[in-house]
Amino acid sequence: MEEKIVTRFAPSPTGFLHLGSYRTAIFSYLYAKKNNGIFVLRIEDTDKERSKKEYEENIIESLKWLGLDYDKFYRQSENVERHKFYLEKMIKDGNAYISKEEAKDGSGIIKEIIRFKNPNIDVTFNDDIKGEVTMNTKDLGDFVLAKNLNEPLFHLAVVIDDFEEGVTHVIRGEDHVSNTPRQILIQKAIGAPTPHYAHLPLVLGSDKLKLSKRRGALAITEYKKMGFLPEAILNGVAFIGWNPGTEQEIFSHDELIQSFDLHKVQKSPAVFNQEKLEWFNKEHLKNISLEEAKERIFIYLPDELKKEKLIPLIMERISKFGDVKDLVDRGELDFFYKAPIYDKEKLIFKNISAEKILQNLKLAHEVLNEINESDFTRENIKNVLMKIADTLESRGEILHPVRYSLSGLDKSPDPFVIAEILGKNETLSRLQKAI
Ligand code: GLU
Fold first, then answer.
1. pLDDT at position 276, please?
2. Ligand 1 in contact with 278 (CB < 6 A)?
């Protein structure tokens, strides 16, 4: 029978996790799903002082948002009985022993801790990313397995939990490579098989230093708040240090599962780039329905701007929904409901004379006035204006003053779109004012 693939994501809820950690979750999830396997979420909460409910909830919310559904969920602390069982077994088998030691705090109190009886052998394992790794375990000494029978420490708990869950592939950060020999020694001592390992290279920030919360790395839920799309974050984060080796960069959730290949994860550290993430988001925005866009954009708009016609125009100018707030705050959409106040010199196009510009504005007013109000669409507007524009040396001689008189901005959408949205009356009145 073919082996059932089981992977797990095993975060410690001792802080908000950033993109680097979620990349580990994404790779573990994709690998399991690609192979019809099982993906387990294990909250490693054995450090009682530092583990917080709030962080656990944030991890759960983030995975849900990203669409990383797990098949099993449990907290490491729920498994203490199993940890105890194996500790007792290891002591009985002579693989561990209770050691009476003076507490390190200088109090003179003697404590009983449980140490591993290290056989001091060379440990070799085959890492799916790093290749063969061999480490001598002699220097590790008889490392500590548990504070007592009811308080196992990290290495023991990880090994027992992975064993009991039948984890076949441990995909985790490179910072755990040096822990692996210890964990393999414990596996051997309890007769557990050694899973496959894949240690993922670090994720670096744009400063080429390890991405960390201290240097501005954000929790995934912050991206949610900024109005990023979960499918774009999933795609963008999966592409940190991995790609399927084709030209295609935009992938849906299911396409990522189909294309994922652990062996294509790059061996060198990967660099996270915020602009690239924005680009992924902008690309994914193209797949959003008008209805959804409207719903998400209207949240940020004052009532005067809640017009369906504005949606495509706004979509072109944002890379994430939160950008709508900036457009509004910077007043870049104000001209859609307020006649702009501007510097009349700026109606002039290049070195064209004021007389010529005036003449063109009058012409524009005349031809636009001839369009029926019900036919005042961007196509019709474009038709009549372009007819004039094409007779001029440069189209800007008419298109610029028309656009500027409608928006009063150095940069704005083309005059046809603006005129359609403003409607015939308002368009003519702004042209009149410019004239
Ligand atoms: N709890 C560990 C961490 O958050 C992960 C342990 C593992 O993946 O083996 O770094």
1. 96
2. no
